[in-house]
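As a warm-up, study this chain.
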Amino acid sequence: VQLQASGGGLVQAGGSLRLSCAASGRTFSNNVMCWFRQAPGKEREFVAAITWNSAYTRYPDSVEGRFTIARDNAKNTVSLQMNSLKPEDTAVYYCAASLATWDLSTRAGDYKYWGHGTQVTVSS
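Now compare it with the structure written out below.
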């Protein structure tokens, strides 16, 4: 099972990036998928999660209204559209999947499958 994140890069503050995560080895169409991020010297931080059928999403206050998570179960992918980026959004971004169908957990330990991450750097 592999989750491959892509789309990171360097962007100026106020700009946008779209991250993608492609899953292989199994289907996650019945599972919650999410994004976390980790900045140097900090703990991994919850960014967004989406239920299996896209009915519900969850974001922390720090990204609410700027980031949008979406999924395409036919393609076994999940994406993160990031707008109005700030320097404090700089981090390695990870996609992950849990065994749950509806639980939009914010705890990293509740997610079983993880990708390797993609670097996002926002310059001021």
